[in-house]
Amino acid sequence: MSLKFPLGVRFITHSLPCTRFPSMNSGALIYSFRSVPVLSKAFPFRLKYIGLGSRVNFSTRPERSQPEFVRRSGAGGEIRASKSLIEDEAELSDWVSDLRTSSSRGKFTSEEDNSGPELVRRNVVDRDNSSRGPRRGREGQSDRFGGARRGKEGEMDRFGGSDRRRTTSDSFRNREGARNGRIQGKSSESSFRGRNERNVDSGFRRDRGLENNKGLGKQTRGLRHEVEDSCDEDEMRIVSGSIDDLLSEDSSDEDDENDELVIQKVGSPKAVRTDMPRSDHVKTSDSYLSKTRFDQFPLSPLSLKAIKDAGFETMTVVQEATLPIILQGKDVLAKAKTGTGKTVAFLLPSIEAVIKSPPPSRDNRQPPIVVLVVCPTRELASQAAAEANTLLKYHPSIGVQVVIGGTKLPTEQRRMQTNPCQILVATPGRLKDHIENTSGFATRLMGVKVLVLDEADHLLDMGFRRDIERIIAAVPKQRQTFLFSATVPEEVRQICHVALKRDHEFINCVQEGTGETHQKVTQMYMIASLDRHFSLLYVLLKEHIADNVDYKVIIFCTTAMVTRLVADLLSQLSLNVREIHSRKPQSYRTRVSDEFRKSKAIILVTSDVSARGVDYPDVSLVVQMGLPSDREQYIHRLGRTGRKGKEGEGVLLLAPWEEYFMSSVKDLPITKSTLPPLDPEAVKRVQKGLSQVEMKNKEAAYQAWLGYYKSQKMIARDTTRLVELANEFSRSMGLDSPPAIAKNVLGKMGLKNVPGLRTK
Ligand SMILES: Nc1ncnc2c1ncn2[C@@H]1O[C@H](COP(=O)(O)OP(=O)(O)OP(=O)(O)O)[C@@H](O)[C@H]1O
């Protein structure tokens, strides 16, 4: 399929910053977009077989065939099929409206990437270096993509050396033998084809304009107009469909009144600007890091000092790619794998915007907000604010504040009054609350010069769109906007004009078709009947713990209540477990999150509130139990491991009737694993553990489970079957008969009179 870009496509030498500044330009080549089909035809699959383990060796000469970032302006390109959530939108919207009406303070919950340019770079270099002596020792990784080439050696090499950690996948993978690996490899390869044309051959590609708005109507239909709640991530539970969570009262709004979210800074102010960077084509390494130094850009020396203190030596690939464009004043949509430093990528230039703004007068107790960062979850917002404060260490006159759900609005109002800030990090629902209810807030927003949507695809998805539109309407049109995410589905690209100027740049640091997940993260999936899931989880964890002294595991569950159930069970099994989900008070969530960040030998069971953006270091294993809400969510969840170029493992545990999900991630290197043998002793222990879990938690988990799967179109279309499956889940919890559900709840779920349900 040839490419259609409305305007030009640029092929630029790999060292992006140099190409953006005339003084540095060492000969970037700009080709007509007409070249693209030709190049695409000539080298359609060039990257496919090239390994990650190769030495990176960039020529300083521009090379047309060296792919780098894929960058476009405006929209264009083919549109992927909309995901099922979008298709479910109208139906869900009705259902949720209904729920909202009768449950006035209902609670809503929702609830993962990995190597782009680095892949491209490695691949290019691999090609360049194929005859230049020894390759660095990770050939095994590349073999994972090589279908039949993958095998023992590749697997062993992946973790190289005798001191490597034994992995869960060492224990379980390929029990079905090499056949699986081959099949997987093959399907991965074939799925790379066709999808890749856009990225493979372009060094740096851009297209302008947003001509194609197809699908927009569908996208905007059924927005979450009924949400006035401040618990943002819970709002997305609408999409997940956890009826139980929807109907429950949130306790978390009431606590945390005294949480101090304003972060202190030290040092002296005064920003000094440096000159534009000089041309410096340094060879890059094969990591998520580039070789470009921060001081090659015109950043405040005080920011540079803070960066040094933070231990950041060179820029990550996404930082290197986006910073020069942003500093030129452009709007940017950036896609880069998880854990590759996107937060710093948008914060650094945002801080520059504050520095450039006139300082607020001393008597102005309500200075304008210059930078507004919107994040989908409270954890992420707090984390982004903490990162901002790291960068602002030597800018004491620049204040950062966080407004998120889980605190009383008046408390936040007071805090904002006493601690003026120029940078505000917020979750959408709470931000909207302030726009509507905090006096003077709307005026302060009129000072916004930079708007950032972190996890942009999620924020622009149906769950948040209405709030985002409201927020966008509240900030000036004359502003710079940055949209960042590890995943940018085509349907989101089609609607990003909601926030971005038409001439925005799309900077894609993920080489399409090489997968959006990190190559160092081993991915497996297991298919097992529901009645074996808890035992399998236990066995899996036991093996992982036995093999990894410093294990740090995250288990993702479908809903908050299922999360609670799994956490309860694992504590009964004497594992070192913590839980985070939307039904926990914010203070608890913050405390547990901090503890998990700092700890080793610990397991976190969580709903999707931890799926995106949260930066826990050294997570060794991510387990996903049950159907992820979509492909993107799978990637973001998985992205909690393998951050900053580290290794990690991911296991997706599905029931046979959930296996259809695998077609949506078939381009990712996920291997089907056979099931580990279930030791009868372990099964017995799990059964005993389940019998000790409180009945009310099982009831809540059952109802939530039913609600979640009711929102999954493929499963919910046969409601009788859905109930049968829910009852299977009930039995898996050790219940003889399924818990009874209130009639009105069943009515709202659209499950009235479905055989197999018990009502109360
Ligand atoms: N230039 C750098 N050098 C080293 N570490 C960095 C650099 N920039 C950011 N980091 C660190 O990398 C880690 C991951 O960054 P961050 O959380 O921003 O990733 P992300 O790309 O936003 O991931 P996700 O998609 O999961 O949100 C953080 O601990 C951050 O402090």
Describe the secondary structure blueprint for this structure:
Layout: H1 16-20, H2 35-42, E1 70-73, H3 84-87, H4 89-102, H5 117-129, H6 139-143, H7 152-158, H8 168-172, H9 178-192, H10 197-200, H11 216-220, H12 232-235, H13 237-240, H14 243-247, E2 289-293, H15 301-309, E3 314-316, H16 317-327, E4 332-335, H17 342-356, E5 371-374, H18 378-391, E6 400-403, H19 409-418, E7 423-426, H20 428-437, H21 441-445, E8 450-454, H22 456-460, H23 462-474, E9 480-485, H24 490-495, E10 505-508, E11 521-527, H25 533-547, E12 552-556, H26 560-572, E13 577-580, H27 586-598, E14 602-606, E15 621-625, H28 631-638, E16 648-654, E17 670-672, H29 680-691, H30 695-710, H31 713-716, H32 719-732, H33 743-749
Parallel strand pairs: 4-9, 4-10, 5-7, 5-8, 6-7, 8-9, 11-16, 11-17, 12-14, 12-15, 13-14, 15-16
Antiparallel strand pairs: 1-10, 2-3
Helix pairs in contact: 16-17, 17-18, 20-23, 25-29, 26-30, 30-32
Bound molecules: adenosine-5'-triphosphate.
Protein name: ATP-dependent RNA helicase
EC number: 3.6.4.13
Biased composition (Basic and acidic residues): 119-142, 150-179, 192-211
